[in-house]
Amino acid sequence: MVDGAAPLRALVLTDGVAGHDRINLGVLAALGRLARVEARWIGVREAGSRSRGFDRIAARFVPFERFFRSRYEIEGKEARWLGPAEGARFDVVVSAGPSTGAANIALARQVGGRSIFFGFPKLPLLPEFDVLLRPDRPAVRLGRGVTVLRPSEIDPDALPRPRRGGEARTMAALIGGDTKHYAFTAEDFALLAEGLRRAAARGVTVTAFNSRRTPAAHFDAFVAAFAPDDVTRRVVDFRREGFRSNLDAYAADVVVATADSMSMIAEALAARRPTLMARPVGYRPPARDAAELAEHVQAGVAAFIGFDEFAFDHWPDRAARLRELPYHPLARLAEAVRPALRRAGAR
To answer: What is the pLDDT at residue 165?
Structure first.
């Protein structure tokens, strides 16, 4: 970072999804390694229903007012300063999540900045963003985008090193929830609660964290079974604690994250924790997630474990065999986004 230089102005788009906002925070943290950053966040919501691929093409060519006002709603008072008369200028526009893609392209044109987007490429051959960050490897050699670990603001250098193997004393259990591909059952939660109780019986302090997707009734039943009165078991409830309430999880010696939550898995890896990806019996991730998870397994930084396998105490040996992420995630991400700064003329 160059001290005394003009700040890099970043416009950050949020769709209200916590996982996407954590990705945005990660991109800002990476940019912060290259320049002093001033960020402004706005909430954007799609209006109506139309092909997102068509919208990303239209965002490049249709006049801003005609396109953007018909396709997006902006939260409250933020809408007023996006007009040309306001002269709002930003170096980069940052977003994650498919609903923000076309908004990112259109706003980058409007504010004179470069687009940085985390997601998956859609249109063949057409470079839709100035920097496309993707969590999977291109299927073909000429595939677009830069493959990175899903971004987060987590800096492993700011965390204590985990105790490994038989020395592990703390475990964080990060629990996701229902998706369009799988709905957790009461039996799934009961089995997970039993497994985590067994982990606590080994003298490991276990803390369970839920997320915005965790089914409320199932989680309440899980809590009743998992932590009725034992001080070695703790619960951090997203419904009360809110956004970023699971940050303490990444200081644990071992992290268990349900396999549906790609962001929480990536955050555990970024923290350089032994990471176990827990899946209920019968869970099959969608193809895109399966490819991303397979990358982690092949790299030796994460392993799968079934909810039922906790009952057999398999997790300590499996966690002990894992290696830590062999690179600093924010440093690698900074190199991935550096081209946007060069093209914006910021550095």
So the answer is: 79
> What does R_g of the chain's alpha carbons equal in angstroms?
21
φ and ψ of 130, to 5 deg: -65, -40
Question: How many residues comprise the chain?
Answer: 347
| Residue 122 near residue 37, CB atoms below 8 Å | no
Q: Which residue has the tokens 């060069």?
A: 342
Low-confidence ranges of the chain (pLDDT < 70): 1-4, 75-87, 123-125, 139-143, 228-232, 311-312, 343-347
**The predicted structure's pLDDT at residue 335:** 97
Model pLDDT, residue 11: 95
Which residue in 22, 14, 91 sits closest to 268, CA to CA?
22
What does the longest C-alpha to C-alpha distance in the chain come to?
Answer: 66
DSSP assignments along 272-294, one per residue? T--EEEEE-TT----HHHHHHHH
* Residue 198 to residue 193: CA distance in whole angstroms: 9
How far apart (Å, rounded) are the C-alpha atoms in residues 160 and 141?
39
Buried b (16+ CB within 10 A) or exposed e, 9-37: bbbbbbbebbbbbbbbbbbbbbbbbbbeb
Query: Quick count: other Cβ atoms within 10 Å of Cβ 182?
Result: 20
- Phi, psi torsion values for 46, nearest 5 degrees: -65, 145
CA-to-CA distance for 330 and 31, rounded, in angstroms? 9
* Strand pairing class (114-118; 131-134): parallel
pLDDT at position 24:
97
The pTM (predicted TM-score) of the whole model is 0.89
Supply the DSSP string of 82-133, one letter for each residue: GSGGGT---SEEEEESGGGHHHHHHHHHHHT-EEEEES---SSS---SSEEE
DSSP state of 165: G
pLDDT at 87: 54
